[in-house]
């Protein structure tokens, strides 16, 4: 973006003398026939150069949809260039390379995926994770991959296809026997045959018709039976494949996708694929075979009349295709309005307590009725349009049949065609109408299926960010030494959450981490557990980089009690046993006692067999936390990370659990993250984190004596407690005064 | 004594929570030598201030928060139009850079595939193409038009949907529900 806030193309680079910003216009050259990417042509506008000696370091800032490169010299900032937000990652890398060069004189180019977000063929922008734009992505690849799911059932699929073709063939033969033979052989000249012969011929014909119909039903039954046995197996394979792929993926994948969207992929997308293969493919085969068979028979019966009928077919197809597109839009509109109503309804049911607390029942009713009104209007419009357009389309089809009937009638009158042939012709035309309509519409069905399949394959193909090295080191007997060196991490490009953080925790020691909300405390816990990988720097456990160690060994040896508690649907005992399914009931009770959960669990009617999670017993925040602690205790990890583990509990329970955890912490490395500073008195040392870096480090006593940030936070909390105490005193005094005055009044 | 302390607290709290609205008398803007936006607020000079809209879609010209470079809020401008023309120009320049959203004047084509929407548009004289993933989630409606957010987080604005060419409207209409 130039100074007049107009879009322009720019390039930025540096050498040992200076930093250069070149603005101009970039034109993407036309794609070559062999699809090799072509370097864009750049027309030079102007060049701004800044000597390196005039720059101390560079920084990027990001805003709503733009970012800005800022130069710093002697503490003074100077804006250099604005850029679009999509380039933030590139600029952040550039800044990192530049600043490293300024500091060390070395050039370290970071690894970045090639052509990120750009079509590999034409350079057009692509959605994340896609290699090709719309024009160059192929449906056929999706189809081939889908078909591979049926790989293990080739004989059955071949039989199904054969049966379907046979079924279509039988259907095509029905008018030949029932209509043509009946009219031409029996009814056209009944006087020429004796009564007995006529009845015999009629009986044979009727039996033939019944036989053909039964054969058709039998074939359909075979096809449906075989499909019904194979399809669920294929669906099982697809769903398991998606679920397996999802388990492989890193936490970051789940953070970037909504739960609903992921659930849809497993359930709805798989079902979409299922229906296309169970309903769509058989119909394509049957209808395709019917169309081919009917056309061959029609041409054989009378090619002139066939060509006459086929001349009008394109008109019918075009009408059907456009009609379908038009209705699809309207159906989509109705569907969107219905989903909005669904959201309002869900909001309303989940938020009933808030709605009632604010007495907003009437407003909610208005909101719902307005939304329903939109649905009503859209549905009325759709129904009215359907009621108008369908008869018109029917008339078109009827005109076609009538025209054929008229021309056929002329041919019958001239004696070039029999009446039976004409009537079977009309029946065939009717038979073509539905397959034509379906085949015109099936492309949309396939698009929906391919769309669903692409989303499914997106998960299957996604590369987990956290991967285990080929020769990962096993860590069976872990001591628990943790060493963090120059750690850097960011969830989004150029927005660092952890900045050059270094600290050390010796095996068996307890480190307390304190800091404001959003300072990066939980991120440190996640990085130690290797739920995310550091961008720069390293985390070593017992001297080994966590990236080199077997993932299962890290996770088994690190117990994380997170502030976001998640309990699975099942019994309390099952949840406590989650990390060690073979734990005995004695171990479960011991862990619950240590987590001060046993007493309240025993007060529940079903005690340890109380169902929790979806549709189960409602537990308070503190109760859930205690189960979560018990779950971690039973895991018996060498490193214990307590991330606000006791925040939702009352002070007394918290103190009890602290004592209990203190006993458990013996011999274990413990990292405790807490807002309530008093809970960290037992820590061997404390680290105060602010904006992703350590601002203070020492023992509790040292930090209090230092009178720095920790002392300030401690003082604020102590004063807050004093205020509460004074408030409580005041309430008690007021209460006593009130009681006294009441007593006096009573007297 | 306890009662007095409680009363003091009650009188202090509302003041601390009150937003500081800035008028042209208490606040003025200037452009620094280096090109940043600076401000003088209640007599104190800030060499670099950050502006943020509280209601960027519904009321882009009202409720603009001013913060210093350490993100500490200095006050709120209720209506930009209350300020002098010179100050309005400076505020709008800064805001239009921070909320940069090129205006779409014509839609040449929209193609949908697998839930991704590929747009070819004219931004005045400039032809641009961009991709929006899941249109329903990446559209922000305002009074007469809307913003489209592409896969890179860039925003493109249609100021008034009714005033763009009819052909362009027809291309986008089916997806706007």
CATH superfamily of the domain at 482-706 in chain A: P-loop containing nucleotide triphosphate hydrolases
Uncertain spans of chain A: 735-747
What count of helical segments of chain B does DSSP give?
3
Q: How many helical elements of chain A? A: 19
Q: Can you tell me the CATH architecture of the domain at 482-706 in chain A? A: 3-Layer(aba) Sandwich
Identify the quaternary structure here. heterodimer
Query: What is the strand content of chain B?
Result: 35-45%
Total beta strand runs of chain B: 13
Briefly note the structural class of the backbone of chain B.
alpha+beta
Strand order of the largest sheet of chain A: 12-15-16-9-17-18
Structural features, described:
The complex is a heterodimer of chains A (747) and B (177). With 747 residues, chain A is α+β, with helices and mostly antiparallel strands. Chain A contains 19 helices and 18 strands. Chain A is elongated, with a radius of gyration of 38 Å. The relative contact order of chain A is 0.06. Helices cover 21% and strands 39% of the residues of chain B. Chain B is built from three helices and 13 strands. Chain B has a four-stranded mixed sheet with strand order 1-7-6-5, covered by helices on one side. The longest helix of chain B is centred in the first third of the chain and has 16 residues, at 2-17. Mean pLDDT of chain B is 84; it is low at 1-16. Chains A and B meet through strand 6, helix 7, helix 10 and helix 19 of A and helix 1, helix 2, strand 8, strand 9 and strand 10 of B.
């Amino acid at each position: 973006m130039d100074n007049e806030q107009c879009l322009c193309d720019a390039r930025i680079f540096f050498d040992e003398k200076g930093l250069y910003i070149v603005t101009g216009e970039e034109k993407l050259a036309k794609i070559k026939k062999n699809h090799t990417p072509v370097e864009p042509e750049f027309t030079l506008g102007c060049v701004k150069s800044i000597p390196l000696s005039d720059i101390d370091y560079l920084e990027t800032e990001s805003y709503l949809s733009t970012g800005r490169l800022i130069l710093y010299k002697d503490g003074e900032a100077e804006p250099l260039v604005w850029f679009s937000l999509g380039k933030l990652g590139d600029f952040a890398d550039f800044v990192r390379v530049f600043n490293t060069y300024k500091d060390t004189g070395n050039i370290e180019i970071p690894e970045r995926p090639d052509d990120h977000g750009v079509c590999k063929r034409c350079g057009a922008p692509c959605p994340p994770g896609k290699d090709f734009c719309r024009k160059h992505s192929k449906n056929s690849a999706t189809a081939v991959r889908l078909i591979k799911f049926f790989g293990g059932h080739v004989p059955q699929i071949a039989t199904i296809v054969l049966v379907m073709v046979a079924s279509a063939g039988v259907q095509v033969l029905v008018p030949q026997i029932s209509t043509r033979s009946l009219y031409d052989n029996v009814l056209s000249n009944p006087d020429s045959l004796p009564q007995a012969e006529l009845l015999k011929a009629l009986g044979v014909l009727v039996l033939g018709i019944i036989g053909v119909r039964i054969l058709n039903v039998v074939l359909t039954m075979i096809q449906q039976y075989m499909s019904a046995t194979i399809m669920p197996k294929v669906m099982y394979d697809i769903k398991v494949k998606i679920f397996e792929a999802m388990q492989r993926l890193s936490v970051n994948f789940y953070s970037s996708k909504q739960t609903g969207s992921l659930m849809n992929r497993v359930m709805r997308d798989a079902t979409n694929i299922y229906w296309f293969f169970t309903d769509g493919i058989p119909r394509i085969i049957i209808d395709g075979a019917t169309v081919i068979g009917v056309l061959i028979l029609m041409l054989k019966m009378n090619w002139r009349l066939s060509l006459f009928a086929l001349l009008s077919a394109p008109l019918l197809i075009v009408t059907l295709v456009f009609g379908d597109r038009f209705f699809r839009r309207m159906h989509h509109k109705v569907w969107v309005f219905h989903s909005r109503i669904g959201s309002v309804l869900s909001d309303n049911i989940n938020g009933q307590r808030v709605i009632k607390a604010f007495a907003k029942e009437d407003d909610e009713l208005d909101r719902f009725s307005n939304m329903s009104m939109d649905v009503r209007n859209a549905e009325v419009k759709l129904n009215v349009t359907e009621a108008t357009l369908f008869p018109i389309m029917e008339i078109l089809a009827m005109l076609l049949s009538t025209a054929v009937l008229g021309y056929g009638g002329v041919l019958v009158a001239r004696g070039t065609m029999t009446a039976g042939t004409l009537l079977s012709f009309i029946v065939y035309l009717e038979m073509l109408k539905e397959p034509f309509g379906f085949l015109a519409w099936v492309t949309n069905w396939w698009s929906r299926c391919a769309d669903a399949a692409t989303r499914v394959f997106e998960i299957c193909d996604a590369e987990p960010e956290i991967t285990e090295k080929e020769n990962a080191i096993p860590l069976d007997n872990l001591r628990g030494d943790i060493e963090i060196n120059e750690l850097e991490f960011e969830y989004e490009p150029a927005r660092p959450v952890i900045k050059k953080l270094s600290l050390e925790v010796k095996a068996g020691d307890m480190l307390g981490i304190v800091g404001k909300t959003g300072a990066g405390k939980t991120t440190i816990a996640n990085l130690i557990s290797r739920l995310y990988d550091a961008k720069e720097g390293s985390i070593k456990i017992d001297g080994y980089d966590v990236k080199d160690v077997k993932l299962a060994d890290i996770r088994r040896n690190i117990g994380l009690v997170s502030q976001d508690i998640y309990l699975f649907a099942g019994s309390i005992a099952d949840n406590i046993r989650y990390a060690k399914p073979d734990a005995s009931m004695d171990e479960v009770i011991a862990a619950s006692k240590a987590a001060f959960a046993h007493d309240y669990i025993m007060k529940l009617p079903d005690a340890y067999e109380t169902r929790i999670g979806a549709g189960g017993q409602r537990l308070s925040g503190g109760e859930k936390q205690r189960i979560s602690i018990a779950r971690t205790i039973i895991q018996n990890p060498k490193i214990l990370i307590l991330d606000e583990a006791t925040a939702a509990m009352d002070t007394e329970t918290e103190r009890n659990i602290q004592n209990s955890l203190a006993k458990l912490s013996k011999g274990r490395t413990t990292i405790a993250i807490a807002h309530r500073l008093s809970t960290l008195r037992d820590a061997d040392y404390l680290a105060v984190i602010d904006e992703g870096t350590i601002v203070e480090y020492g023992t509790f006593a040292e930090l209090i004596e230092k009178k720095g940030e920790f002392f300030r936070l401690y003082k604020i909390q102590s004063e807050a407690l004093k205020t509460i105490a004074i408030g409580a005193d005041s309430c008690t005094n007021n209460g006593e005064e009130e009681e006294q005055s009441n007593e006096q009044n009573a007297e | 004594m306890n009662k007095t302390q409680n009363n003091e607290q009650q009188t202090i709290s509302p003041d601390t929570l009150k937003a500081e609205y800035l008028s042209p008398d208490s606040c003025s803007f200037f452009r620094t030598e280096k090109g940043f936006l600076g401000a003088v607020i209640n007599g104190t000079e800030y060499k670099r201030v950050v502006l943020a809209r509280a209601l960027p879609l519904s009321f882009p010209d009202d409720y603009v928060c001013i913060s210093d470079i350490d993100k500490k809020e200095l006050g709120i401008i209720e209506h930009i139009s209350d300020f002098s023309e010179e100050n309005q120009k400076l505020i709008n320049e800064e805001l239009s850079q921070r909320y940069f959203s090129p205006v779409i004047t014509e839609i040449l084509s929209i193609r949908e595939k697998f839930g991704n929407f590929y747009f070819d548009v004219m931004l005045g004289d400039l032809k641009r193409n961009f991709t929006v993933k899941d249109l329903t989630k990446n559209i922000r409606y305002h009074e007469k038009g809307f913003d489209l957010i592409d896969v890179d987080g860039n925003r493109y604005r249609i100021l008034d949907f009714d005033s763009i060419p009819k052909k362009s409207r027809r291309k986008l209409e089916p997806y706007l529900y």
